[in-house]
Amino acid sequence: MSTLSEAARTSHALSLTAMEEASRVGQRPADIDHLLIALVLTEQIPGQVLRSFSMTLDSVRQAVAEQHLDQLAALGIQTAAPETGTIVFHETDGYEWSDRALGVLTRASKHGKRGNAAAVLRELVGEPSGMIEAILARCDTTPAAVTARLDEAERTPTHTPRRTVRGDALSGSSEAFVPASPEQVWELLADPSRMPEWEPSLEHVGGAPATMNVGEIRTATARTARADGKAIRVKPDFITQHVELLAREEPRLIEWRFTFPEAPLSNARCIRVELEPAAGGTHLRLALAWERNPSRARRPIPGGLMRPLYRFALWLQLSQLGGGIARAFR
Question: Which Pfam families would you find in this protein's record (predicted)?
Answer without folding.
Answer: Polyketide_cyc2
